User: Which sequence fits this backbone?
């Protein structure tokens, strides 16, 4: 039997679509188990914890945190963690990609770091 490898599809999300995407994404994945992995530009990877509960994701379009992306997680002991990632700069915009097959949201940040949310 000749098995074909599963194709990976990645969909980029344009900046103008972020808020609507984040709203829909948060509704769909709230309460699901997630692992957040942060890979910095110097090839250092850190995991927030093994598994947490996804609370939501959103962006600020005004004020001091304009362009920042926030991710809310809940630990198994009930503690809340909100991570803030500085997103856009004029020289290096942030990019979002959703891989349906892997259930992974990839956030490529302006500073060269990448955040992976794996469900």
Assistant:
């Amino acid at each position: 039997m000749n098995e074909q490898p599963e194709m990976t599809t990645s969909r980029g999300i344009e900046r103008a679509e972020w808020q609507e995407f984040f709203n829909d994404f948060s509704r769909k994945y709230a309460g699901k188990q997630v692992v957040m992995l942060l890979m910095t530009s110097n090839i250092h990877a850190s995991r927030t914890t093994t598994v947490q509960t996804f609370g939501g994701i959103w962006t600020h379009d005004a004020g001091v945190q304009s362009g920042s992306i926030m991710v809310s997680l809940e630990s198994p002991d009930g503690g809340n963690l909100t991570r803030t990632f500085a997103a856009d700069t004029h020289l290096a915009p942030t990019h979002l990609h959703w891989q349906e097959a892997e259930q992974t949201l990839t956030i490529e940040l302006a500073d060269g770091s990448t955040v992976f949310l794996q469900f």
Notes: The first helix runs from residue 18 to 29. The longest strand covers residues 52-59. The two ends are 31 Å apart (CA to CA). The chain has a mean pLDDT of 80.
